[in-house]
Amino acid sequence: MKVVTGVIGNDIHVVANRLMDLSLNARGYEVFNLGVNTYLEEFFDAAVETGADILLISSLNGEAEGWAREVKLLKAEYKSIDKLIMMIGGNLTVGSGNAEDIVPRYQNYGFNLVCHQVDLNTGLDMLEAYVDEHRPGERGKGELGNVEHNTREQVPS
Amino acid sequence: MSNMNEKLLIDIGSTYFKVSTDNSIEQHFRDFNKQILDDLTHKCGDTLQRYDSKNVHICSSANGGLSTLIIGVTHSFSLKYASNIAYNAGINVIDSIIFQDIEDYSIPSDLIDVVIIVGGINSNGGVFDERLTSYLAKLNYSSVVYVGNQPDGALVAERVEQLVVLPNIIDDRLHIVEEHLKDFLTNLYQQDIEGKEDIKHLYQITDNQIYSTPYVVTKSLPLIHGSFPVTDPFILLDIGGATTDVHYSKDLVNDNIVTEQGFDRLVFKKLGVYKSRQSLIFTAENNEFSYELLMHLKVTENIYQEHSEKATKVLMQLAIFLVLCKMSHYRPAYVTLRLLTVNSIVFTGGITKVLTTEDIEDIVAFFYRKILNSDHKPVTVLDSGYNIWTLGAKEHAVCL
Ligand code: B12
């Protein structure tokens, strides 16, 4: 499956993004990494150009919510990304916040999967479970073939 | 006959033409009732006679370049990459269309020189469908080139006559691939210049290929430090009668497109002080700061109606301001340059005959203050002897 990923807005925290790229690759996804400092329109545009199945946004510095509010409005302007699986993770609020409030709020903004301060591998396991449930048989199809989960052990932690 | 190796360099603009020998440079206003060649022989016949046609090198910016309409699937990738390549090849983008909404766009009535179709990485076929062919069927164009995803290219080629299919300009990592489309467009532009009736006659006096002026100027940029007190990064503004050209070094762009050249170029086709005077005024009237600028210059909007030396001067000052606006975040045209890091601004073209360094510095300072809220003051360098063009033309002539 094809995944577009990157860090949203003016955020320049790059470490998680690099790890994300490695982990996704190790799990057999075809990764299009837009890196840090990526605007919402660029994420959607990349999904259109690549025909991505999944959009995985990171936000670390606390600016996620401002962007998340724009998601529905902007996404409505696109005609070919209705099926895109939308995921967001990192620090989804300013300060610590608690997931019980944050998760439903972001789901409301249009995200299928919301991981507030969840570590990367737990988050990616959630993604796989979601794909298996909603798109049975699609994971690992095409691109790199079925990649065993244990390849992720190669990812530096 | 002149010295065997001495070159005669001729530049045909929309308003002036220039003739440069090793030790002199002449400039003449064009007589629009005459063919270029007649005008040239009438005014510079003696000089022309002294040179063998193999030593005469001509470039032209008189025809304003080719026009393109780009059909792409997103702003951030396909349209942006194609526009970038088109601008670099000296082609003017007159419209760009997002494919998903293609049915909502009106059909331009003017003849389009070249239509560019782009979208999708190669593993993403099925991006285009019959809406593309029905749009093209209604469009009036001379040539059409496809630089999108591979699988769709074959399908589109079956349905669109004379479609040129080149490799995708978007690679599998979403990066830009310039060379094929750029070469194609540059050749098209070249053929266009050579095909213009007026220009064709000029082959009677030269054995060499006639190039576009911006192409020649680009040649001089890497050499500019040898002739002018220019500090990097710099921009070069060539404000002429019909168009304005901006050459800038790549490190001034806030962009993630990685390209090969050190310099890029933008053309504002409808921004000039003679042929494009009306559209310059139109642009000015739509800029909320122009009024303030006119006040600053102690004139009123009535100046737009005047045809005096003073009016030309003011229009040129306005042109500088408007071009800088177009390259800033205030009125992004296509690229936004990091103008606060610019150390030198070099001016060339007709403008240097009318404005003094002080006139220009005044406007540049006004721009930085009003639009960028800054006291930044790049050094103004005036190329009033057309040395930049001579440098590029010579370099070019030597390379041939
Ligand atoms: C290093 C760092 C910086 C460096 C960044 C260097 C660089 N280019 O990467 C610098 C000094 C530049 C910096 C700047 C700032 N920072 Co800082 N920074 C950090 C720091 C110390 C470590 C970040 C890091 O790399 N961690 C290692 C990676 C691997 O972990 P991670 O980023 O947390 O990501 C993990 C998870 O979040 C998760 N994850 C991430 N994305 C996703 C996505 C999905 C889908 C999933 C499932 C999981 C997931 O996976 C990762 C691994 O488990 C953190 C504090 C901390 N200890 O976390 C603050 C921190 C992130 N920074 C913070 C702030 C506020 C800033 C600044 C605004 C400070 C300022 N006032 O200038 C600026 C913002 C700059 C900008 N434009 O973005 C805050 C954010 C607070 C908030 N959200 O409320 C933090 C949390 C510090 C704090 N406690 O206040 N910072």
Task: Summarize, please.
The complex is a heterodimer of chains A (157) and B (400). With 157 residues, chain A is of the alpha/beta class.
What spatial order of strands do you see in the largest sheet of chain A?
2-1-3-4-5
Report how far the terminal alpha carbons of chain B are from each other: 21 Å
Beta-strand content of chain B: 15-25%
Q: Could you name the CATH topology of chain A?
A: Rossmann fold
The general outline of chain B is globular
Structural class of chain B: alpha/beta
The major beta sheet of chain B can be summarized as: 5 strands, mixed
Specify the overall morphology of chain A.
globular
What portion of residues of chain A is helical? 25-40%
Indicate the CATH architecture of the largest domain in chain B. Answer: 2-Layer Sandwich
Q: How many runs of DSSP E, i.e. beta strands of chain B?
A: 15
Most extensive contact: A-B, 17 and 19 residues
Unique ligands: cobalamin
Largest pleated sheet of chain A: 5 strands, parallel
When the domains of chain B are counted, the total is 3
Fraction in beta strands of chain A? 15-25%
- SS class of chain A: alpha/beta
